[in-house]
Backbone:
């Protein structure tokens, strides 16, 4: 499926097929709602293409299979959801330390704990800040449409290999289960040369070791500085966001992932009512567009963060704004997506009463 | 003068073992290295290393190695082999790594018949952390976390790894060997060779459990430690081949 023709497709299937188009060589996974269709789809496609598909015994095993596979230079991924992604945090820390291009898709469900399969955005912290040990940073891409599920899957595989850093595609149950028209086009990114580090056997060269720690303290310290220097480069090159009607806006609605859809609609309604409202939407949650938000705040523009969690991205926006203007939060922990009407009425209240630090609905 | 003994070609020229004096790890690594040379595997070998006493294996062997988190060497090796079916893939793990924290990954690799080889050193303790009770600690064994000795009521029983792996349908070869005597070392090398050969032939999971001494944590001389292997370990962990699908008559 590689054409510009529009197809009506579910987010989970779109991610799966986009991964195949991006050159997925191995898939390792364990079922969990609401992302199971990705594994089901690939279980049919991968063997037909002569590529590897393994029903892993656990998410722990699945992500470590990815670590092994990508260490040889091929493209591999696993997909999962919230509470099971929690099991993968150790391996993500290793992947950063080992500089392995892991691709992980998280189709979020509600937590904490087992929670339920309601849509939610409660894994912002888990993705951006991580649950693994040590100092590390992951690239996090948050799609808001099925088309972006395809586009960002292509980008995820490219960025992972380009920077030798894990990438999380952070979708949610709404996107995974929703059908929308989208086209696959062609993977727009070039091949990445992995020959300088990939494990392919010590033929005509010395043996290579991929590891994160050693008893040489100076080397270890330098390794972490190097990782962070690399992430500065990622920040410089890859930080991306979208903004709408920012120029004259005095309030900027801010959301990530599929909540972006509703803030855009709410903006239109509020504009119709004569209120100068704009939208800002980080595409990369990590690296986060701190600088852009900070510059907008310095112009006096107020921010209203809308998210399906208890205010996780909210604190990053506040950090970026740094007291230069006001930041409010409109949120619900999980379940029914905040509706356009709810957002409109909450924003009107903020206009009347000023900043509100938690407008949980 | 004729040289009759040398460091295997696939070992790094400047390597220094980080194992304790008298530990059998050094012998086990050497046997693996000799076989990599003899079977001409150096150029196609990829090792998934473990966490434990052998964590620095990549400093000894001049082959490609990838570090796996504790217990995940078999999952990592699965990924390597599925991505590179033509390479020679193996794990080198301790009993804590293979049979405690990583038991699920190890056993499911065997059940899936993953086509790589796994070596597991059984020294009845967690060596690197200073001698705690492990999955293979013997009944009555005193460790830093079973100070009054292992008893069934309080701690349960040790696992017999080679027998368990032999029960998995995807296993092509499973054996237990020891390094306490020269003849046993010779047999150990034969078993590792077999575990490597079944992979070369694409027959499935090849496994060798190696009984090893740990003089430091057992608080014994190397000689006493080998005596313990013979007198206390082998009666509980009998040596032998528990499964070999290449043997006459099939599964043994």
Residues:
């Amino acid at each position: 499926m590689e054409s510009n023709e529009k197809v009506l497709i579910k987010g989970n299937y779109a991610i799966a097929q986009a991964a195949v188009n991006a050159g997925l060589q191995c898939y390792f996974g364990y079922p969990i709602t609401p992302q199971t269709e990705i594994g089901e789809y690939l279980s049919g496609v991968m063997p037909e293409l002569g590529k590897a598909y393994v029903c892993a015994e656990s998410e722990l095993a699945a992500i470590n299979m990815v670590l092994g596979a990508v260490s040889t230079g091929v493209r591999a991924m696993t997909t999962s959801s919230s509470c099971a992604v929690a099991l993968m945090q150790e391996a993500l820390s290793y992947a950063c330390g080992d500089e392995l291009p892991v691709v992980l898709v998280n189709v979020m469900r509600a937590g904490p704990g087992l929670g339920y399969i309601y849509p939610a955005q409660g894994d912002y912290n888990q993705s951006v800040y991580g649950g693994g040990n040590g100092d590390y940073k992951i690239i996090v891409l948050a799609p808001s449409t099925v088309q972006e599920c395809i586009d960002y899957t292509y980008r995820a595989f490219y960025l992972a290999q380009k920077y030798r850093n894990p990438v999380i595609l952070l979708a949610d149950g709404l996107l995974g289960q929703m059908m929308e028209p989208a086209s696959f086009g062609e993977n727009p990114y070039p091949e990445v040369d992995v020959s300088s580090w990939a494990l392919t056997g010590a033929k005509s060269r010395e043996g290579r070791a991929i590891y994160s720690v050693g008893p040489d303290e100076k080397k270890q310290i330098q390794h972490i500085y190097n990782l962070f220097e690399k992430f500065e480069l990622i920040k410089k090159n890859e930080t991306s966001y979208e903004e709408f009607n920012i120029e004259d806006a005095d309030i900027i609605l801010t959301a990530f992932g599929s909540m972006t859809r509703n803030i855009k609609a709410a903006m239109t309604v509020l504009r119709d009512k004569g209120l100068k409202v704009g939208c800002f939407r980080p595409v990369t949650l990590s690296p986060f567009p701190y600088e852009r938000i900070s510059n907008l705040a310095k112009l006096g523009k107020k921010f209203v963060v809308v998210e399906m969690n208890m205010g996780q991205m909210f604190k990053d926006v506040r950090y970026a704004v740094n007291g230069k203007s006001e930041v409010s939060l409109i949120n619900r922990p999980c379940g029914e997506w905040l509706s356009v009407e709810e957002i409109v009425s909450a924003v009107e209240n903020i206009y009347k009463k000023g900043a509100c630090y938690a407008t949980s609905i | 003068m004729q040289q009759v003994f040398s460091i295997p070609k696939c070992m790094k020229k400047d390597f220094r073992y980080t194992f304790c004096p008298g530990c059998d790890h050094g012998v086990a690594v050497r046997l693996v290295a000799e076989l990599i040379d003899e079977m001409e595997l150096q150029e196609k070998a990829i090792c998934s290393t473990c966490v434990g006493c052998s964590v620095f294996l990549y400093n000894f062997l001049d082959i490609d190695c990838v570090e796996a988190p504790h217990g995940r060497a078999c999952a990592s090796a699965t990924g390597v082999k599925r991505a590179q079916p033509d390479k020679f893939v193996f794990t080198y793990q301790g009993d804590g790594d293979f049979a405690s924290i990583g038991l699920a990954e190890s056993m499911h690799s065997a059940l899936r018949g993953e086509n790589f080889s796994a070596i597991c050193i059984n020294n009845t303790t967690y060596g690197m952390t200073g001698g705690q009770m492990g999955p293979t600690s013997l009944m009555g064994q005193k460790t830093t976390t079973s100070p009054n000795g292992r008893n069934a009521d309080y701690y349960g029983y040790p696992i017999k790894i080679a027998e368990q792996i032999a029960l998995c349908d995807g296993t092509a070869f499973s054996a237990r060997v020891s390094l306490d005597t020269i003849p046993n070392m010779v047999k150990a090398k034969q078993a590792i060779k077999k575990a490597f050969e079944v992979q070369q032939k694409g027959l499935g999971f090849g496994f060798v459990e190696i009984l090893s001494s740990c003089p430091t944590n057992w608080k014994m001389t190397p000689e006493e430690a080998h005596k313990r292997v013979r007198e206390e370990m082998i009666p509980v962990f009998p040596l032998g081949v528990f499964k070999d699908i290449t043997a006459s008559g099939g599964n043994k």
Summary: Chain B has one domain: 25-244. The mean pLDDT of chain B is 96.
